[in-house]
Amino acid sequence: MNERSQVLALKYRPRRFEDLIGQETIAQTLSLALDSKRLSHAYLFSGLRGSGKTSTARIFAKALMCENGPTSHPCEQCEHCVSANEGRHMDIIEMDAASSRKIDDIRDLIEHTKYQPASAKFKIFIIDEVHMLTKEAFNALLKTLEEPPPFVKFILATTDPLKLPATILSRTQHFRFKKISNQDVSAHLRHILNLENITYEPDALQILARSGSGSLRDTLTLLDQAIIYSKHHVDVSTVTEMLGLIDPQFFESLFGVIFSKDRARLVDTLRELEAYEAEMVVDELTSWLKERLYDHDDARFSPLLLERFFRILSEAKSLFAINAEGSFVLGLIFFKMIEALKVKEIDQMIESLEAQVGRPDSVAYAHAAPAIPAATTAPAAPTASAAPVTGSESAPEAAAAPEPEPVVAPAPDPALAKFEALCERIDDRSADLGKCFREQITFIAYGDDTLTWESCADDDCRTKLKHGFPVIKQLVREVFGFETKIKHNPCSKPAEEAAPKPEPVSGPVNEAPMPETGFGSENSVSAVEEMEERPAYMESYSAVEEAPQSASMTEEVETGSGSCVTGNCEPDLSTREIDGNAILDEPMIQKATELFEATKITIQNKV
After folding, report:
1. Mean pLDDT, to the nearest integer, of 526-536?
2. Is the terminal CB of the chain with fewer CB neighbours within 10 Å at N or C?
3. Residue 499 and residue 370: Cα distance in Å, rounded?
């Protein structure tokens, strides 16, 4: 046969171990076995079609037959090498078990093993598709396969080793041929086209390699067809048209429509896809999205978004199993992808929430000012949330003061701004908790990763602050840092000053009698009782006169456990059950429900 008329799979069939594509491990093992003369009597080559099993068997047989052999580098010049390359060596017997699979065929083969080789050192039997032999034929081959004459070598090849009896597998050296990677196949195609002086596009070779599914012979067959169809210029458009695939540029425009959420254009695109097999479109779409995962230049396809798209495609695969109509499945896929774009990532959700619920940083709170002794305190400049002024001083007069007194005009403290941000976050999480925190907690200082504040909470706010302390502690770490510890100072104000102040309003203040529940009232508790009832994050000293501030204060705050000096420890109420319906009323939960368009919310207890 004229070499020019040969198909590429035969013309460029490997003749040396170095020519094998993607099977370097097997080539190295067989080469070392030949050079060290550590040869087995039977070999089994298994793997995907077109992975090089038969070619390797012929190369190995030639290496055994060479006059210089056994050697991993046959001379290619002696009579044995030449006849082996031409497929006419008398001592290399190839048998196709798909057509000669009965026990009589195996008996004839066994009869040949009794005679010495005609001219070479060995007599080699290559049995292709050995898994096609019948059970009786396998049983007849067992004894000869295990103990053949010293000059006989068996090389078995199969695409399905699981169909072979265990008795056959145990009598052979098993070599597993792996699937050839697309990169290796593409590189081999480029090498062949350069030798053939045929122009090509690299992307077209990638499509051919992917269509070959790891089989080099199948890929070379497709390449032969592409060369003819494209008139010796292998490009993407002709290859995709020849294979009935979709041009990658079509997917570019398709996802442009999806990201623009243009449903009318998407319907037109779906009509164009009716000419293709739906399952093939899904496979090509999956391969195209996989390339986008590795392409960092396209910022539209984040890993989270690609994960959503792949999940949609995998769910659509199950619809083909129940014979769903192809165009309906494709339409369902693309419309679900549009819906997937509405789900925001967590970072986007946080930024959106901060933009919608954020307040100006210039708002100051009277409770956030550093603690100053009552004897030296002067009226502060009024703010939006400051306590109302008393006496004859009005807001305009206070604002018109030329300069505040030096004692109430400390230098700006960055920690104070953070404390104000903390108050805003607590208020966003719960209005009642934020109100109690503003009114009852006073900022003292922040330094060495320790936030110090003073608390003068009444009974009602004490309970709310105790239940909300896990939330407060988490927000403190978010604002001040994860390593921040909380240090509590007991209330230093007299009992009558520690009573809750009325909330400032913009209109006239209606003076109403305050309930007698705070300090200084008839129902007020003693200092020791107050200390026992105070939660862990507000726990005061158990005996101020007897011992100074202990170093374990911050540890108790972090662990949520209080001191038991008085012997009357109160159980931690922060772990008791909370009504789930109350959680649904939280502003953050309501905002998240709106953003995610949730239709079902499940509340679980955290143990």
Report:
1. 40
2. C
3. 19
Asked if residue 591 lies in contact with residue 349, where contact means CB atoms within 8 angstroms, the answer is no
Structure tokens at 462: 């004490």
Structural tokens at position 316: 């659509």
Averaged pLDDT for residues 567-594:
64
Two tokens, residue 383: 């703010």
Weakest mean pLDDT among 76-90, 291-305, 509-523: 509-523
Beta bridge mates, 126: 94, 155
Rounded distance, CA 380 to CA 495, Å? Answer: 22
d(CA 269, CA 272): 5
> By the 8 A CB rule, do 186 and 192 touch?
no
Q: How many CA atoms lie within 13 A of 333 on its CB side?
A: 31
Whole-angstrom CA distances from 257 to 246, 248, 315, 337 are 17, 15, 22, 11
Q: DSSP state, 21?
A: S
Residue 234's pLDDT is 92
pLDDT in tens, 548-577: 443 334 334 443 444 333 334 444 444 455
- DSSP designation for 599: S
Return the minimum-mean-pLDDT range out of 191-200, 258-267, 482-491, 544-553: 544-553
Residue (of 550, 545, 574) closest to 563 by Cα position = 550
In the predicted model, what is the mean pLDDT of residues 464-492?
Answer: 82
Task: Assess whether pLDDT exceeds 60 at residue 406.
Answer: no
CA atoms within a 13 Å half-sphere pointing along the CA-CB vector of 196: 24
Six-digit token string for 364 = 């100051």
Residue 14, both tokens: 């490997």
515: which residues sit within 8 A by CB, 6+ positions away? none
Instruction: Kindly write down the DSSP assignment for every residue of 414-450, as one continuous string.
Output: HHHHHHHHHHHHHHHH-HHHHHHHHHHEEEEEEETTE
For the chain, the residue count is: 607
